[in-house]
Amino acid sequence: MSPIENIWAIIVYYWKPERERTPDELLANISNQWELFRNQPHLVRNHVSSVPHSKVLCLTRRFHQVWSWSVGDVCIKTHQVKGKLVPDPHQLYSDFNGRHLVVTTVNFWPYLKTITLQNGTISPISGIDFSVINSLSEILNFTYHIVLSPDGNWGGPQPDETITGLVGQVARYEAHAAICGVTITESRETVVDFTAPYYFEAATLVSPAPKEKNRSFAILSPFTVEVWLCIIIVTVLVGPLLYLVSRLLVVCTGEEEGAQYSLQSLSFNMYRSLMLQTNLMNSSRWSLRIISFSWYLFCLYIYAMYSGTLTAALAIRDYEKPIDSLYDLAQAHRDGYTIATTRDSSYDAAFKSAKGGIYQDVWKLFNHEEPSKSFLPNPDTGIEMVLRQKYVFINSLLSTKLKAAQRGREKFYLARQTFLPQGYGIVCSIGSPFKDVFSKVLLEIKDIHRLTIARALTLDSVTSTSNSPSKQFGVSDRF
Q1: What is the value of pTM for the model shown?
Q2: Cα distance from N-terminal residue to C-terminal residue, the chain
Q3: What's the CA gap between 340 and 305, in Å, rounded?
Q4: CATH topology of domain 206-211+320-424
Q5: CATH 3.20.20.370 is the classification of domain 88-198+425-447
């Protein structure tokens, strides 16, 4: 469509159905929208620049007659419509005829990596979404140039009614589209449109690799504190118990046993039995024999469990308990860890909007008194903070694996449990005529596995330059 048709399409889109359909109301709507356009000079400029130069001179050829009428002396004579008043966007944009689009992004590898040339031009060089946008441009016959998000974030609508990041650029018509692992969220869909998702991914928790525990007290490691307390209490009480039973038997029967044992000797013998598995007591009374036998059996079990567990503990290295799920974050917070994620990201929005459950509990663990500590500007900063301090960073799984591999996979721990599966889509302005065309092509690309090939090629280039083998961070089983 021409720039005039694009502007008219926007005016029609914002016509509210509840408004009275009169010429005055129509003129009022056009006037309001036109005033908004005047505050956005880049909108018209982008529409004009998107039209190929070869088409500008012959723009009139794109108009065709769809209605005709003539005025007579008495009445207006009309003729039948000869075509569609508004062309079908699917058919119109099946070939962009060399149009030039402005695409905004953030520098977020492995989805898209850019460099700045000497003349200031932003040039994409690699990434999954770089392959996606190139495939679209080849299939739909358009060219594009890249601009970066002014704040380096994905962004979205804010409480003060501003729209930040690359989502804001598209919403303000400063760019035709945005791509770079942009998650489809409910809040963002209030200000922009998304294509069909072309990739699905879950989130993970990345934390410092668990450290090996201090082995100075490894001799006590086979049992917990509670078990040790029970063993001590039973060892202290079993001697007096035997002495008390022996005295009661003498009182009840009136017969003295041949060998008399004092309280001290009975207590020491019980302790000795626990340590050496031997017995120096001889008793002719069955009640004392049963108590002694039960104690010896107890000592045998304790000795066997202790020696076996201690051998295993000394043979295998013991590490701190890792952070494997969202439910472990509360204990990590008590242990001094800072819980963090990327500012204005889909993860930030998901936890913030939670009305209950574990997501709301996690939201309370963020540092709201000093937001800059918990809400970081980009994923790279989060990964670096994990290396430097006690941080748990919430990020997308694929990006985390690759960034950890670049810095040394052995320095990080990725949680076993993933969560919050989300889809990535291309951001388009509300009512964009080429959104559905993009979606159709993306689905076709997915069906013939072209995206899978693009991802595999991207990851192969990573593993060939990384110090860590691909299997170490799970690339081989990802695709």
Answers
A1: 0.60
A2: 40
A3: 42
A4: D-Maltodextrin-Binding Protein; domain 2 (3.40.190)
A5: no
